[in-house]
Amino acid sequence: MSLLELKGVTKQFGGLTAVNQVDAAIKQGSITAIIGPNGAGKTTLFNLITGIYKPDKGSITLAGTSLLNRKPNQIAGYGIARTFQNIRLFKEMTALENILVGMHTHLHSSLISTLLRLPSVRKEEDNAARHAYQLLQTVGLAEKCNEQAKNLPYGEQRRLEIARALATKPKVLFLDEPAAGMNPKETKVLTELIIQVRDDFDLTIILIEHDMKLVMKISEEIIVLDYGQKIASGNPDEIRTNPRVIEAYLGKGAVRNGL
């Protein structure tokens, strides 16, 4: 069953068409990769779905609900969370505090209750702290709970971003180049984590990634963009041998030479 559907999604910036008539149907519980050469429109497509940009044409629906003309915080409330190419943690906060920031939309205490420090507020805060710690355990960072985010190694900062996204209780998790800048050991840990959180949290995961080994290993569906257009979609074996994909990455000569 399709959870997220895009039909004819188009976005122009001046005379440049960054995303051009893109259709997609993302299955619930799947791991889908969006790939393509630099400038293909991948991150722009993410930004359209998450409300950072508004499409000029087309429709975007999540479980039948239109996401058009919704603000990013509203779309997050419908169950979409994301990470970014550039890490966006609160560097001076601890790992645990970063998770708690991600949980704020699900806390219910009123301002007056908080100011008065009523028992209900303390209970909610204790429950939130326990859940945040559990999320840190999920991503292998429980022992770093009181460490400032800026002091964590790069790969651990990436995993902390994923934990913070999970704190919003999403239905769909968007990962924008999660393995960028990682060494092979960090990438292996990340690969296993993506599969784990999909299964443990019953998530649908969509990622942009240039690490083709990671993409081919974990993706059940791959969508390929080039110059803003979808040129192919299918499983890893289909994409690996698709002439249009080979041409987009390696040029027409690669197709002629049978690469």
Brief write-up:
The chain has 259 residues and is α/β, with parallel strands linked by helices. It has eleven helices and ten strands. The radius of gyration is 20 Å and the shape is globular.
Protein model, in words:
It is built from eleven helices and ten strands. The chain has helices at residues 42-49, 72-77, 95-102, 111-116, 119-138, 154-166, 184-200, 212-218, 236-240, 243-250, 252-256, and strands at residues 2-13, 16-27, 31-35, 57-62, 65-66, 80-82, 172-176, 204-208, 221-226, 229-234. Strand 1 (2-13) and strand 2 form a beta hairpin. Mean pLDDT is 88; it is low at 107-116 and 253-259. The strands form two sheets. It has a six-stranded mixed beta sheet, with helices on both faces. It is globular and about 55 Å long. Helices cover 40% and strands 24% of the residues. The protein folds into two domains: 1-79 and 170-259, Rossmann fold, CATH 3.40.50.300; 90-168, no CATH class.
What order do the helices and strands come in, and which of them pair?
Blueprint lengths: L1 E12 L2 E12 L3 E5 L6 H8 L7 E6 L2 E2 L5 H6 L2 E3 L12 H8 L8 H6 L2 H20 L15 H13 L5 E5 L7 H17 L3 E5 L3 H7 L2 E6 L2 E6 L1 H5 L2 H8 L1 H5 L3
Parallel strand pairs: 3-8, 3-9, 6-7, 7-8
Antiparallel strand pairs: 1-2, 1-4, 4-5, 9-10
**CATH superfamily name of the largest domain?**
P-loop containing nucleotide triphosphate hydrolases
Remind me, CATH topology of the largest domain? Rossmann fold
Number of strands: 10
Strand order, biggest sheet? Answer: 6-7-8-3-9-10
Which stretches are poorly predicted, pLDDT < 50 over at least 5 residues?
107-116, 253-259
CATH architecture type of the largest domain: 3-Layer(aba) Sandwich
Give the CA-based shape: globular
Distance from N terminus to C terminus (CA atoms, Å) equals 35 Å
> What's the mean pLDDT score?
88
Question: How many domains comprise the coordinates?
Answer: 2
Query: Looking at the chains present, what oligomeric state does this protein adopt?
Result: single chain
Beta content: 15-25%
Largest sheet: 6 strands, mixed
Radius of gyration: 20 Å
